[in-house]
Design goal:
It contains 16 helices and eleven strands. The mean pLDDT is about 95. The strands form two sheets. A seven-stranded parallel sheet has the order 4-3-2-1-5-6-7, with helices on both faces. It has a four-stranded mixed sheet with strand order 9-8-10-11, with helices on one face. A hairpin with a 4-residue loop joins strand 10 and strand 11. About 45% of the residues are buried. It has about 400 residues and is an alpha/beta fold. It has three domains: about 5-150, 3-Layer(aba) Sandwich (Rossmann fold), CATH 3.40.50.720; about 155-270 and about 305-320, no CATH class; about 325-395, Rna Polymerase Sigma Factor, Chain: A. Bound molecules: nicotinamide-adenine-dinucleotide and magnesium ion (MG). The site of magnesium ion has 4 residues, from helix 7.
Length: about 400
């Protein structure tokens, strides 16, 4: 790498955003923060601006922008504050930006992530929901613009590392039989089924291995996260849903595997710390220090693998059905899941109601083809309306 790369971090105040800034700060000779965005934790965003001195900071409201701009001037910084989705798209597509970390959670990240893609940036994709919602259109935009799309999800980053460089020729052409997508199984892997309805948001967010934002933590508990990742893998690696097998691996040391026709199975291993895939993607194809401890296999001792139980994890079945249905189904699945998870976190529904709500909404809405982005947003809005109706009837 010859010059310092200018990096925009969308969702800088979140778990992935902070890990990204940790890696960037270890390599000032390679990376410089160009822009940061935050949504609610504005004090944290101010601290990050003081530390990384970005050219721009992006916040959601006029009121927040005024407060942050005043505080930045007070701190003697020249950082300019931009507003809302337009501001996010501007810093994602800015001509001086080399790389964009897409780490906003949920559908809110779609437009800014696509703005980075359409501007032909190096796009580090953590915001899996964006790809799940708009799959074919997103990948078409990548091809059209020549953007470099690098997966941050630990599983997809692992698969990316285990595939040959020319995998875009097709999985069959490079000798891949199937992809083995590992899952920790979350905090409720062994909870008696009759106790599941009463589990609390706090229990759902207390992941046994990974420390993450609240939405993805609940998704990990229901295994909807793995369902979204199955769809993500199909788009990233041009795989059919039946070529992706989910494997529960509670230690989360093997981050995923690729099974080749000659019987070779390649895996990527490492401590469960997102700074590894982040550093891998930031520096790709070079390797840089991420701050992650070396893996101690003697301390880990054992690696276990088991098949997922679809009775325990109905969200995984629903996501696989959406993957197979294609068209508008994944956008619907994603949107109703976002509403369901928010309602669970607000204690308006119980844990098992998450899957019930999703199944009910998916059954109400026919699958339609998706040829333009407006259909994706219409489906997202439609699913949220149906989910709100379900909530009125069944929520607390
Ligand atoms: P988080 O909740 O910790 O952070 C989310 C970030 O998005 C915050 O900066 C927040 O300010 C911003 N944000 C939230 N709502 C927004 C909105 N409406 N508009 C603009 N910005 C908004 O989440 P996270 O755990 O960092 O996850 C971020 C993304 O990365 C998710 O898509 C998640 O699935 C994915 N991911 C996370 C991990 C992980 O270990 N945390 C691993 C793999 C993938
Ligand atoms: Mg993951």
């Amino acid at each position: 790498m010859s010059k310092v790369q200018q990096v925009t971090v969308l969702g800088a105040t979140g778990s992935i955003g902070l890990s990204t800034l940790d890696v960037i700060a270890r390599h000032p000779e390679l990376f410089k923060v160009f822009a940061l965005s935050g949504f609610t934790r504005l004090d944290e965003l101010l601290k990050l601006c003081v530390r990384h001195q970005p050219r721009y900071a992006v916040v959601p409201t006029f009121e927040a922008a005024g407060r942050l701009q005043a505080a930045l001037i007070g701190a003697g910084l020249g950082t300019r504050v931009l507003l809302g989705e337009d501001g996010l798209c501007e810093v994602a597509a800015h001509p001086e930006v080399d790389a964009v970390m897409a780490a906003i959670v949920g559908a809110a990240g779609l437009r800014p992530t696509l703005a980075a893609v359409e501007a032909g940036k190096k796009v580090l994709l953590a915001n899996k929901e964006a790809l799940v919602m708009s799959g074919a259109l997103f990948m078409e935009a990548v091809r059209r613009s020549g953007a470099l799309l690098l997966p941050i999800d630990s599983e997809h980053n692992a698969i990316f590392q285990c595939l040959p460089g020319d995998f875009s020729r097709g999985l069959g052409a490079v000798g891949v039989r199937r992809i083995l997508l590992t899952a920790s199984g979350g905090p409720f892997r062994q909870t008696p089924l009759e106790q599941l309805q009463a589990v609390t948001p706090e229990q759902a967010c207390a992941h046994p291995v990974w420390s993450m934002g609240r939405k993805i933590s609940v998704d990990s508990a229901t295994m909807m996260n793995k369902g979204l990742e199955l769809i993500e893998a199909c788009w990233l690696f041009d795989a059919r849903p039946d070529q992706v097998e989910v494997v529960i691996h509670p230690q989360s040391v093997v981050h995923s595997l690729v099974d080749y026709v000659d019987g070779s199975v390649l895996a990527q291993l490492g401590n469960p710390d997102m700074r590894t895939p982040i550093a891998n993607a930031l520096a790709w194809p070079a390797r840089i220090d991420s701050g992650v401890e070396p893996l101690d296999l003697f301390r880990i001792g054992q690696l276990n693998f088991e098949a997922p139980d679809e009775q325990r994890f109905p969200c995984l079945r629903l996501a696989r059905q959406a993957a197979e249905a294609g068209g508008s189904a994944p956008a619907l699945l994603n949107a109703v899941n976002e509403v369901a998870v928010a309602a669970f976190l607000d204690r308006r529904i119980g844990y098992l109601d998450i899957a019930s709500m999703i199944e009910s909404v998916l059954n109400q809405e026919p699958v339609v083809p998706v040829n333009e982005l407006e259909t994706v947003f219409a489906m997202d809005a439609r699913a949220r309306t149906l989910a709100a109706h379900w909530l009125e009837r069944n929520g607390r």
